[in-house]
């Protein structure tokens, strides 16, 4: 069993990619299952095999503890972590080849609280990896690109998993996709774009951040994915296979 955690900023398309990846594996003969870890989501574009909402009820938490939505989400995620043995037992009964984990919309709830890291460490499977989603609609300027790249690196540090970076919503950003892909592989190209788009202080800050990220191995490129058409899933599956299956891809 291999586990794939899908993370990214709110609205970046985590649930949509979860659905597309599940369909891709299923179509190509691999047995996959989906674990939803978002206790506050109302509807999903896939059928959950294991669902955190079976273990917590957001409305009951809000009423019982007189909490607002954010406070209830924090408590719900901590409760989910305390139920990890039950969740693991459900996963084991299904025993898929690939467990795709759709993480909460609010990334800070999952990545920066100890409960999220606890869940990552205590889901017992043979191999684990993470996909981080760069929201294409957010990274059409070089400063925003560097900001999300910094966040992606921070999430990778927190989760301590090999990570594949993808850019979503490619259908919406047109020709800007080419710029984004060049920024993700060429430090000089991104620095030139920053010089044209920023003042002195911002340029100095962003280039210093960028060089630190580059030294940390960030500049591996982004895999473009369309959550509408599924374009790019073949490349994503290939990258996943190199991490999870020592290069063996599912049958296409």
Description:
The chain has 252 residues and is an alpha/beta fold. Helices cover 52% and strands 14% of the residues. The protein is built from twelve helices and seven strands. A seven-stranded parallel sheet has the order 3-2-4-1-5-6-7, with helices on both faces. Helix 3 (69-82) packs parallel to helix 6 and helix 10 packs antiparallel against helix 11 (200-215). 40% of the residues are buried.
Question: Which key phrases capture this entry?
Answer:
alpha/beta; 7-stranded parallel beta sheet
Protein topology:
Elements: E1 2-8, H1 14-27, E2 32-36, E3 50-51, H2 58-65, H3 69-82, H4 84-94, E4 98-102, H5 107-111, H6 114-122, E5 127-135, H7 142-159, E6 163-168, H8 170-173, H9 176-183, H10 187-197, H11 200-215, E7 223-224, H12 233-244
Helix pairs in contact: 2-3, 3-6, 7-11, 10-11
Tell me the strand percentage band: 5-15%
Tally of extended strands?
A: 7
* Low-pLDDT residue spans: none
Helix/strand/pairing class, anyone?
alpha/beta
Helix content: 40-55%
* DSSP helical segment count: 12
Question: From N to C, what is the helix and strand string?
Answer: EHEEHHHEHHEHEHHHHEH
Order of strands side by side in the largest beta sheet?
A: 3-2-4-1-5-6-7
Query: How would you sum up the global shape?
Result: globular
Largest sheet composition: 7 strands, parallel
**Terminal CA distance:** 20 Å
Mean pLDDT: 91
Mind telling me the C-alpha Rg? 19 Å
């Amino acid at each position: 069993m291999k586990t794939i955690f899908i993370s990214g900023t709110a609205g970046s398309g985590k649930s949509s990619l979860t659905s597309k990846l599940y369909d891709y594996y299923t179509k190509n003969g691999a047995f996959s299952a989906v674990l939803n870890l978002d206790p506050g989501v109302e509807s999903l574009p896939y059928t959950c095999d294991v669902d955190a909402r079976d273990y917590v009820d957001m409305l009951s938490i809000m009423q019982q503890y007189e909490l607002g939505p954010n406070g209830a989400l924090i408590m719900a995620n901590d409760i989910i972590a305390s139920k990890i043995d039950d969740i693991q037992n459900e996963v084991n009964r299904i025993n898929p080849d690939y467990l795709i984990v759709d993480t909460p919309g609010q990334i800070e709830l999952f990545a920066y609280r100890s409960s999220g890291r606890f869940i990552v460490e205590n889901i017992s499977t043979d191999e684990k990896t993470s996909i981080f989603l760069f929201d294409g609609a957010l990274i059409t300027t070089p400063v925003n690109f560097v900001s999300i790249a910094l966040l992606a690196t921070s999430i990778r540090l927190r989760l301590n998993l090999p990570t594949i970076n993808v850019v979503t919503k490619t259908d919406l950003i047109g020709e800007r996709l080419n710029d984004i892909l060049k920024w993700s592989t060429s430090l000089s190209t991104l620095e030139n774009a920053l010089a044209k788009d920023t003042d002195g202080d911002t340029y100095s800050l962003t280039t210093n951040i960028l060089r630190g990220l580059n030294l940390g191995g960030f500049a591996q490129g982004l895999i473009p994915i369309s959550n509408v058409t599924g374009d790019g899933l073949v490349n994503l599956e290939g990258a996943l296979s190199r991490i999870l299956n020592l290069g063996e891809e599912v049958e296409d």
